[in-house]
Amino acid sequence: MWDTVDHKFRNWLVSRYPVQSEVLLTHKRIYIFPTLAGLAFICVALLVLMLAINYQNNLAYAICFTLTSLFITAIMHTYANLSGLRIRIQTPSPVFVGDELRYRFEVLSSRSLKQLQFGFRGQEQVTYDLERDKPLLVYVPASSEVRGWQAPALLRISSVYPLGIFRCWTWLRFEEPALIYPRPVAGGELGQLNRPVGGDGAEGHVGEEDFQELKSYQPGAPLSRVAWKVYAKGYGLHVKSYQGEEAQERWLSWHLWPQLDTEAKLSRLTYWAVTLNERQTPFGLVLPNVTMEPAVGDDHLREVLKHLALYDEGALL
Amino acid sequence: MQDRLATAVQAVSSVVMGKEETVKLAVACMLSRGHLLIEDLPGMGKTTLAHTLAHVFDLEYRRVQFTSDLLPADIIGSAVFNQQEGGFQFHPGPVFTQLLLADEINRSTPKTQSALLEAMEEGQVSAEGATRQLPEPFFVIATQNPASQYGTFPLPESQLDRFLMRLSLGYPDEETERALLKHGDTRQDIGRLAVSIDRQTLMNIQLACDQVTVSDAVVDYVQRLAQQTRAIETIQLGLSPRGALALIQASKAWAYMEGRDFVTPDDVQVVFEPVVAHRLMLRSGTQLGQSITTNILASVDVLS
Amino acid sequence: MKLPTFQFKKSTVAEATNKPEVLLARSSKLWLLTMLVAVCLPQIREIPLWLTIVVGALLAWGFASTLKVRKPLARWVRWSVVPLMSVGVLVSASGLESLAGLATLLIAGAGLKVLELRTRRDGWVLVLVSLFMVAVNFLFDQSIVAALYGFFSLAITFAALISLNEVQAKQVNFGTLKRSATILAQSVPVMVVLFLVFPRIEPLWSVKSERAVAKTGLSNEVDPGSVANLTRNDSVAFRASFTDDAPPERSQRYWRAITYDFYDGRSWLNVGKNVGLEASAIDTDTYYDYEIIMEPTARPWLVALDYPQSVRAARGTLTLKNDFTVTAGKPILDRFSYSGRSVVREATQELSLQDRERFLRLPPYGNPQARALAASWVEQQLSLTEKIDALYRRFNQSFEYTLSPGRLGRNSVDQFLFETQRGFCEHFASSTAYLLRLAGHPTRLVGGYQGGEWNPYEKYMLVRQYEAHAWVEVWDENTGWRRLDPTTAVAPERIQLPFDELFGSSDDFIAESPLSVLRLGKNIEWLNEVRLRYEAVNYSWHRWILGYHNQQVDFLHDLMGSLSTLKLLLVIFVPGSLVTGGLIWWLLRARPRRYHAVDADVQYLSRLVSRADSSLAREQGETVRTYCWRLAKHQPYWEESLMQWLNNLEQLRYSPARGQPEGDASYHASFKNMIKTVKKPTRLLGKPARASA
């Protein structure tokens, strides 16, 4: 019951402000309330007041009024420690399901702000000190449980600095979704991948056995392929090259493991995509709705992973 | 020593007419052991500048015209089987010189480009399994033709910052052009120029440039400039720490040439555009125009 | 599983400090321990010695273990300290006054908390306890020094509080203290307003026992030596200020506190009932309006200048009795202030038969010589004045006025009059009253103070305990009560001179505080002036701060006329919102950049020249050299001094070998010269060169 009220209230708060990519915090967005410690502080002030009244002690009165007045001053100091903060979301880097997802925000202020806490609802908070006029990148952790696009949840920025008797905070909504790739799960066999399943790709590659020629060494070639025997004979560094190396392509196909369910298939395909890319083996992708030509490289991998992440996204919701 | 440098600059300027400032910057680049990239249209005197510099500073000079079929070995050198001795013998390429003019570097394949750039970076060449030191001093003046994009391989941004400065000679002003037209080709004059500064002196000056002090105030200024490049929206990647270091290095040489043993913000401002502009990439993919570097200089307070 | 391209760089994430479970950082611990030392220190006088030692040891251990000099205490040691301490506190506190007990309890608790100082929550508890203790400290000591110290320890306490929420630094950072002091200072205006207008209400329950306040000053019994004893004490009896700042003559400064009507043969006592004085309309121009702040005496009587006509107190009702004494009806346990009006002329009054009998009553036996003397007066049919003259003559001839009269035995009057002949005021007064009663004149003894030191700085009179005095009032059938001060007969200077000038060299004078400034300083002029100034400040302090509850109504009334809730609220909220607004502006204002000393000079030059021509202001990206050349071009007359300064500046600012700007005389000289040159032409030439070209 309370949860739904709370949820509705928060939604109402946020709906007051349009989604922006950059926000300047002003009094319209900042809320402030005493902390538990602040309430205890007021109790002590009241105790001192009792002391002052009963002992007719004007210095004790002065202490009581100092505490009261400081309580008010603290409101302004706490407010000033959040007000004027300029925050802009940056395009988040994609991660795999279960990995640590961090949304990046660039924050900037013309005053130095201390002990700012950033965090999404129900997630870990991170604390940063912000120097004056120095933009700072803030990484706010979020959970990455589901593949696909994930918009950041409500971001809370809060601060209790300097005295800790007030907390001021703000809720912000940003629309810069992070892409979450399926969780890579090892499984299946490489051999299976070589079989032409989805397309009419190369057939019967023997792989790395078929020596073709010696090439002169270029920096960056794997040491395991250096022709040490030739080098030992004094002919300089040469590298063995194998037939079919360039032609060897793999196809990552949706149909490879029919026994798995959708998510498991995607996880396994993800694993192989990453693995093949590490081995610098060109690979293609065949999904029911998309086919990608074999290639290698980080850009290609990113594209492949994006297709895997977004596969049938509607079914996730 | 500054007098002799001034004489040298004067001498070079007498051949490359009306470009005293650019010549001075090129000399500063040499003094701080940096390589120079000249970006200009053909016929602006790039080659003349390189040649004259080599002559005035008494440096061994070679020129390589980069073409699309130029191979790394054509620059670095290659091992040739010697029939008489029954083994491979290394034939050093044109890179083994003191001043190498790499003309139209963007015409060759990236492979060849990177072979040269590697040599520039490390001051040595690995060929046929052996490491060979390049002579000292070693300068590369590379030229690039910005206008003709067809069939070129533009230097990737990661390699551009191997060059300490990027200069552009530009069209001569009216008066200089008139003098040029009257006088005819000045290239014949190169041979007649006296050697102003010998090799050893040059290296001594390089050492002296290292001794120029850089106060905290100037370091802070350079840092603020670097931060500003990172803060500007349209710049994709801000100045790297290496870039900032290059800025200080070049400022030192400039301060030395100005006859001071300490760097002032004026020095930094002079070398800022040549040192920084080619290291920054705009989001649109183009390189920084002069207006943006001017803006950066104008928007960063010199005082602190 | 990670791709190299997807790595993110973890930037420096500060430790989260929002949760109470967060462990305390070293700097926070150090601040908290410092705070405890600061708030416990004033209590050393009040708490038992063993507690001072134990808590001191605990704090020392706390510091040592935080600074990693010592290992933390073993668990069993910690656990055994708790019950031992509890027992100790229970035993000690039961024997202490309630206040001292409270202090003991608080300090013991804080000391124990040091053992378990781990999390932010522990820090919070300590801060709250220490805030309370700062207030408790004021119940023991309310001097200016104590108040200043109190606010200092408040600043430290808030520094500790801030450090709980700050970056978890290893080292103690004094910026924390500065911030705390700033916040505290910003809270002062609202605090002052609240202090002024917050209504002071009567205690909700009685917390002070009579036992707690030491009885000082005159007692309701005077025996030979009791007034002289007071001269050993230099503490303040009361302070008085006069309307129009016109105090009475020294010889008129008879401050009346109590009358004694009953003589038991040795002591004079105050036993008889004096009824309230009916308003006597004495018509006179010479009256004094004054205000008295009385130190607590634990006795009900108050002092008033002879002769009081009316008295009034802002709090509580005062009674003016028919013996012209004033009583508050209950013991004065706190500093008490009231105002009164006194007339100078002696008061006439009817003397009832009962009272006549009361003021003549004497013990039937004893002091035969005195009786004989009185009888001889009666025999000679001397008038009252003649009797007094005879007595005074006797006093004047062979008596000695001294602070150390020696002890008297039985028949003390005889012994004094005919044997020792050495005495202090009460000896003279007592024997005079005795003789006059024997001679048939209703007489009473009056106890009070004579004298007082006028403070010219704060315009008030300070009366100390050693100025206690006793004199006599005799009933003259023609004129009524008449003041007799037999001391004047033997030592007229007692009335004419300040008491401490008279007795400053006597050993017994303020024997309780031998190092008192009073003793040392009277002869050294500047020291005396310092003392007077200090006392002036102290007087204002007592009157306006410590006794503000007595002044509040009058003060507010003077300030804004008749009081109303609306006015009070306005007084709170108008300054409150002004201060708040100012503070918000201050906090949110765009801070001007702070420049390096040399660069600030450049900015100064820029401001200076841009006043005349705004285009001459330095551009942000303009180096000093470029700027100077631009100025030189604008006004060639400036060039020489500008360049000289520029060279110095560049050397100083950009060549680190040159040294600090403070030490560089040639730079400063060139700067001054340049500024002088730059200022000159704008005045004399008026037009810059460019305009004439």
Automatic annotation (TrEMBL), chain A:
* Domain of life, per lineage: Bacteria
Please provide the record's keywords in A-Z order: Membrane, Transmembrane, Transmembrane helix
Transmembrane regions: 30-53, 59-80
Q: Which PANTHER family match?
A: SLR1927 PROTEIN, SLR1927 PROTEIN-RELATED
Designated name of the protein: DUF58 domain-containing protein
Q: Which organism is it from?
A: Neptunomonas marina
TrEMBL record, chain B:
A GO MF term: ATP hydrolysis activity
Q: Where is the ATPase AAA-3 domain?
A: 35-165
Give the SUPFAM superfamilies listed for this entry.
Answer: P-loop containing nucleoside triphosphate hydrolases
Q: Which domain of life is it from?
A: Bacteria
Does the entry feature the keyword ATP-binding, yes or no?
yes
User: InterPro entries of this UniProt entry?
Assistant: ATPase_AAA-3, CbbQ/NirQ/NorQ/GpvN, ChlI/MoxR_AAA_lid, P-loop_NTPase
**Keywords, alphabetical:** ATP-binding, Nucleotide-binding
From which residue to which does the signal peptide run? none
Tell me its family.
Belongs to the MoxR family.
* Name used for this protein in its record: MoxR family ATPase
Q: Which species is the source of this protein? A: Neptunomonas marina
UniProtKB/TrEMBL annotation, chain C:
Residue ranges spanning the membrane: these are 47-64, 99-116, 123-140, 146-164, 176-198, 568-588
**Which residue intervals define the domain Transglutaminase-like in the entry?**
417-488
The reply on keyword Membrane is: yes
Q: Does the keyword Transmembrane helix apply?
A: yes
Q: Which UniProt keywords apply?
A: Membrane, Transmembrane, Transmembrane helix
User: What is the protein's name according to its record?
Assistant: DUF3488 domain-containing protein
